[in-house]
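Sat 14:20. Reprocessing the chain from the morning session after the first attempt stalled halfway. Input below, unchanged.
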Amino acid sequence: MAATNASSTRTEDERPHADGGPPWPPVSARRGEPSWPHLAADALPPLATTAFPTVRDRFERLVTTAIVPAAPDRIWRALVEPDEVGMWLGRCHGSLAEPGRDAVLDFEDGEFFLVRPQSAARPDDGGHGELRWVWRWLGIGQAASVTWRLDPGPGGGTAITATEEAINPPADWQTWNGGGWPGILDQLTQFLRMGTEWRWPWRRMGPYVQVELAASPFEAWDTLLSPPALKFWLQRMGGDIAAGETVTLMMGDASGTVQMAVRTVVDAGQEPPSFMPRIDFSLHRGAWGGEVGGQLWIEPAGWGRSLLQVFHFGWDALPPGRPLLEERKVLTTFWAGAARRATQLFLRPDVTGGPHSWT
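Finished this time. Tokens:
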């Protein structure tokens, strides 16, 4: 009887199993409130990934050297005097030798560099000199540092060394910029030797526009291609971004429209090896007399950031006699404006609309 009474007075938490095994887990544990330390959630953490990236920066540097049979002072003038810079590089508005004062290197086809000189040390008695600036393509691209160094060269000449440095530049930066700097130094060398203009009249490829976005590539791509965003940053008037579709884009109040024929749409994760998304397309305006090819794509630019880019080609295939140079400037202005609008989509997450009540 005593045993029976003892059994009847046990609490629910102390009742044994029917087969005589250990007591049931406490009611508190069965209600999601574990009271046994050896069964706590952190006694054996679940098998899951706990590592996450915090930095994905890469540093790139291009160094190009030329030996020029000219005195350092003569080369210095070619590097900093606007009239001379315009003969071999780009039309210079402002001074490249006044640190802290912005200047523009204008290629006169719609594209330009915004330049901010950092330091300017004229050649000394030993022939050493150095000029450094930071520049941005179209004023909105990634900032890169350019250093020109003058040193005594063999045979009484001068060694010109141009160094460009960037952090997280585009994937093809080594190809385009690395291949471009020897040509730039050749143009400078030929100008110093001949005294005649060695600039190209205008480029048959481009415009090229790039801008950094404060979002990872896949997140940025999904945001940019959403219907409300397309109305805002790309100024889509009609049509869908889909293969085989034609999209009408408003280039500006004074510039009219352009027709975008979408050829291919590659979404994120679809195409190795990069798995980055892109759009292949062509543009057509009546004044062109034909089509200009283009590609719009995105890639990483460090952890949590991406680089939106667009590039055009095929101007040389258009019929002659058209005002192509002026049209190229219009197109450059359109894409530069679109890139600036794209950045606004990621500045304030609480704001979903744009100027003029666009949403």
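Residues 1-14 have pLDDT under 50 and may be disordered.
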